[in-house]
Amino acid sequence: xxxxxxxxxxxxxxxxxxxxxxxxxxxxxxxxxxxxxxxxxxxxxxxxxxxxxxxxxxxxxxxxxxxxxxxxxxxxxxxxxxxxxxxxxxxxxxxxxxxxxxxxxxxxxxxxxxxxxxxxxxxxxxxxxxxxxxxxxxxxxxxxxxxxxxxxxxxxxxxxxxxxxxxxxxxxxxxxxxxxxxxxxxxxxxxxxxxxxxxxxxxxxxxxxxxxxxxxxxxxxxxxxxxxxxxxxxxxxxxxxxxxxxxxxxxxxxxxxxxxxxxxxxxxxxxxxxxxxxxxxxxxxxxxxxxxxxxxxxxxxxxxxxxx
Amino acid sequence: xxxxxxxxxxxxxxxxxxxxxxxxxxxxxxxxxxxxxxxxxxxxxxxxxxxxxxxxxxxxxxxxxxxxxxxxxxxxxxxxxxxxxxxxxxxxxxxxxxxxxxxxxxxxxxxxxxxxxxxxxxxxxxxxxxxxxxxxxxxxxxxxxxxxxxxxxxxxxxxxxxxxxxxxxxxxxxxxxxxxxxxxxxxxxxxxxxxxxxxxxxxxxxxxxxxxxxxxxxxxxxxxxxxxxxxxxxxxxxxxxxxxxxxxxxxxxxxxxxxxxxxxxxxxxxxxxxxxxxxxxxxxxxxxxxxxxxxxxxxxxxxxxxxxxxxxxxxxxxxxxxxxxxxxxxxxxxxxxxxxxxxx
Lengths: 308, 344
What we know:
The complex is a heterodimer of chains A (308) and B (344).
Chain A: E1 17-21, E2 27-31, H1 35-73, H2 77-107, H3 115-120, E3 122-126, H4 134-142, H5 144-158, H6 166-179, H7 191-196, E4 198-202, H8 213-223, H9 231-234, H10 239-251, H11 254-268, H12 278-298
Antiparallel strand pairs in A: 1-2, 3-4
Chain B: H1 7-12, H2 16-39, H3 48-71, H4 75-92, H5 99-117, H6 119-142, H7 146-150, H8 165-172, H9 181-201, H10 208-230, H11 234-267, H12 274-309, H13 313-333
């Protein structure tokens, strides 16, 4: 799944890019989440969980305070005692749920991401391209206990009183092993991801359709063939250059277009006019080059770049 | 939503790939709208037709992407289609939305099937637990100083070597009027649940720490068993323990076995890659572990209430034995017809 050789050169493939094959057999490019954004997401989630725990505790303490007042006044202290006991049970259950169910609840939703992950724009997915199952989410989150909570609790109790004994060193080593686990494997998996068969990827960005900016103008240019290029002139460039040209046209910056216009004219051996409609020239060249290259594609001939 | 592009616009497009795109754009836009609404969590606002259309549209757009990759050089369209197919893929192959249906499948066969799937690990873990108990017993029998090393302080209040028979008997019977039973049960549950999650998660280190945790916990049991045996209260102690112990020890056994299962799959992956083996074992064990948490809820309830309320040995044995029988029957005798191991 890590072979990037078969990919179209259109996208820049860095070491975070992977190809996932869907059950329909379509190869989709995925970008693994960066370690920084994952750490950021975890921090945010821990802050959220901490705030939830804190607020629940405060609310329950407040209720308990009211109950204690009741005990002082009431004739029947046992009933109020039961109420206190109930509050205590509620507190234990809430703490257990926040610690264990917060991540589960959000990652099982349609977005596959906790609020922290959503803010940093990442989500979890199944590594094999199949369905993300409840078991995967459960497994990856149960492992969080030994990766994070346990060594931290251990560390807090070991370093109690200021001196770090052997236990403190062991807890630190434990914590560091798991914290740096994503640095020591190809797919940046943490231990939980490894066990669950999941990975964390960037949620696809919402690229709205800005395409076809070239189309209307191209159609217009077709109507008045101010710029017609010969077969030889079109054979100079390949797909890579076509897509660079497309990017330049989309960005629509005058100086960039002037520079590209000059470069193309030099290559084609045409006299470069200093003035004139650079954009119309480039659009016409883009359309005709694309028509030529796509016709070649249909015949099974592809030209990757100008060197091909 | 984009209106269907009129015929003339399609014809006017200079390139064949642009015509291809204009003809299909409406479907793409519709899928994008549906996916966008689902991503924002507005499932209610979707009409039934949209929900039904989602998988069809997903396949349509996926096939558009395949064709576009072979015929079009419009980088923007390709990037858009890739992002759209990926977003739709996340939804179509996302987690099943309904937690209820998952729970029903889990209780109605999924859990017991995955427990049966790790039977070998359960046997190993059981052997380790028995061995741990024996070791605890033998250690304390050899030198009673071991008792203080093994048994944590909270249990060693009046239950120490040399305590009188009456003092020991008092710890087993006559605690009915304890007030904080329910709170105690909740505390026990939270505590035990973390311990068994630990036993499971430690399986990651090839299962060895899971086994050590099992040995340590059962050595405590063996030591206490020795103590009560010395006072001639063996049966009473076993009965006292069995009320919740059959459920709790079973749960600890399962969590240890789940951890061991992961460790064993990673150490001996067979034909699969280590990663794949770990992932498969992890998913199976996660299902077992969800059940373990449920069992611990039951155990805490039994420990907090039933044990203190039933104050005679035969009654306690009856409850404990019944629970053990129930779990055994549920895991090993209860099978769905046509059930094919793991749930899809």
